[in-house]
Design brief:
This protein is mainly alpha-helical. It has helices at about 1-5, 10-25, 30-45, 55-60, 75-85, 90-100, 105-110, 140-170, 185-200, 215-230, 230-240, 245-250, 255-265, 275-325, and strands at about 115, 120-125, 135, 205, 210.
Length: about 325
């Protein structure tokens, strides 16, 4: 469509003004409008379409004032339970992946099937906001939800492809190998619809945004992790890099796996709340038994060593006595 647009001899500045008017009338948030216009202007420059200083000045007067204050509602476990319970197979897999890993939505929509290894998602530095490679961990129930989604993924892609052909006359290639081959805008719209169905949708008229966002799920995961893990470990798991992390903190993948095993029960959505406490208690008991077993093995090893010493001493004593005879 973008290539077609460049061949239609359009008046680009007029189209950009109409685009701004459309977004204002459709209720887009001021920050969203500014971001989208910025993307279009950058695309213009890329294609050597330059706006004059007077046109830029006119456009600024047409743009809405940015609103930075957002009345954001906290996402609770109860909200997530309700949302997941009302979700279809796609949104269930996305929500459980986000909640159990702490991934950003853009990262979640970028990973391919070959990057999913057991319960770990290995992202490259290009896929990460911080431009550093990272490994996210997902829960067992999230893995199960992903497996269910993959059973119908190709069918959903085929439906989307047919819709593109019918509505836009475009033939969309089927070469997208992402696990969730959808745009952020599509998933965000599905998330709003899901909230309305679940009865937890709230709208902030001031910022023209929903009070509960997909990024709020990452905040919930971060908060849950920091109840049961140190701040540094939680940051390392969710890919939140702070000053000094690169120089002073180096957690091995094995250490992160152990940390995630401790917190995974508390990131499980569909199981009862008692499950997390029971599983955590079971893990603690197993850890205690492991320590006891290690201690017994160490004691057994020391006894064997003592027996060897005693045996050697007895043999020496026998030889001494025999030589005296």
């Amino acid at each position: 469509l973008s290539l077609r647009y460049l061949t239609e001899n359009r008046v680009y500045f007029d189209d950009l003004q109409l685009f701004v008017t459309y977004m204002i009338q459709s209720g887009s948030a001021p920050t969203t409008i500014h971001n989208r216009v910025g993307h279009v202007k950058y695309w213009f420059k890329w294609n050597e379409i330059l706006l004059s200083p007077s046109q830029i000045s006119i456009l600024k007067t047409h743009m809405p004032r940015k609103v930075t204050i957002h009345d954001e509602a906290d996402i609770t476990r109860e909200d997530l339970v309700s949302l997941v319970s009302h979700a279809d197979v796609l949104m269930r897999a996305i929500l459980l992946t986000l909640a159990s890993s702490g991934m950003r939505i853009g990262e979640c929509l970028s990973f391919s099937l070959d990057q999913l290894r057991n319960n770990e998602i290995h992202l490259t530095y290009q896929q990460m906001k911080a431009r550093k490679p990272h490994v996210y961990h997902v829960s067992s129930e999230a893995l199960q939800a992903i497996e269910e989604w993959l059973k119908v993924r190709d069918v959903r892609l085929s439906q989307a492809r047919n819709k593109s052909v019918k509505c836009l006359g475009l033939v969309v290639p089927m070469s997208d190998n992402r696990v969730f081959p959808f745009s952020y805008q599509s998933v965000a719209a599905m998330f709003v619809s899901l909230q309305k169905v679940a009865g937890c949708y709230e709208y902030d008229a001031g910022s023209r945004r929903a009070c509960r966002t997909l990024h709020g799920i990452r905040k919930w995961t971060d908060s849950q992790m920091k109840i049961y893990l140190s701040v540094n470990l939680a940051n390392a798991l969710i890919g939140h890099f702070e000053q000094g992390d690169a120089s002073y903190r180096r957690y091995s993948l094995e250490q992160l796996r152990d940390a995630y095993a401790k917190v995974e029960p508390y990131l499980t959505i569909l199981a009862p709340q008692e499950y997390a406490e029971l599983k955590s208690e079971t893990q603690q008991q197993l850890a205690s038994h492991d320590k006891l077993l290690v201690g017994l093995m160490q004691d057994n090893y020391e006894l064997k060593q003592d027996n060897k010493v005693i045996k050697g001493t007895l043999e020496s004593l026998i030889r001494y006595l025999e030589s005296g005879k």
